[in-house]
Specification:
The chain is mainly beta. It has one helix and 14 strands; from the N terminus they run E-E-E-E-E-E-E-E-E-H-E-E-E-E-E. Strands 5, 8, 9, 10, 11, 12, 13 and 14 form an eight-stranded mixed beta sheet that branches.
């Protein structure tokens, strides 16, 4: 059943069980109605996911293209309500025109260090190409990462400000 309760014989039933009601027929005879009620468990699930700014996903009847919290109602195989909440974080790939004058990363072909300059406070994250965080710090206006302890390879710099992540550049060392 889809509801969490059922009105039977003037009573609201909220638990699984066998319920009886005796009614009189139009001829005056007793008639017993037996209800074998099963109330299945309703589920409430929450899932976190991350999208790149050029991605979208289908969630129930919604196409998700922005960060936020989304809720959908689904039904289990037993027909019970299940509420699923999807928490979506967005990673902005590349720079928007108005970001390009606010965030700078250099040099692209780095040897021992890279410099990141930006407005205000930010969480700076450097990952390898598999997405593993190799360097991370909070900074104000600018920061220099020392790369000499990292093996040669391609690294990605993220600047996170006000819950928005900007994927800036691929850095080659």
């Amino acid at each position: 059943m889809h509801a969490r309760s059922l009105l039977f014989a003037g009573k609201r039933l909220t638990q699984t069980g066998i319920y009886k009601d005796v009614q009189k027929t139009y001829q005056g005879a007793d008639s017993t109605i037996v209800l074998n009620l099963t109330i299945n468990k309703a589920y409430s699930l929450s899932k976190d996911t991350t999208l790149m700014s050029d991605q979208s996903i289908q969630f129930g009847m919604q196409e998700i293209t922005k960060a936020g919290t989304y809720t959908e109602q689904f039904y289990t195989q037993a027909g019970c309500d299940s509420i699923v909440t999807l928490n979506v974080k967005m990673i902005v790939t590349g720079l928007k025109e108005n970001d390009s004058d606010r965030i700078t990363v250099y040099p692209i072909n780095a040897q021992n260090e890279i410099h990141v300059e930006f407005q205000g406070e930010a969480l700076l994250i450097v990952t390898d190409i598999l997405g593993r965080v190799v360097l991370q710090t909070k900074a104000h206006k600018k920061h220099t990462f020392q790369l000499d302890q990292l093996p040669e390879g391609i690294y990605i710099v993220f600047v996170k400000q006000n819950e928005i992540e900007h994927k800036l550049f691929e850095i080659r060392r």
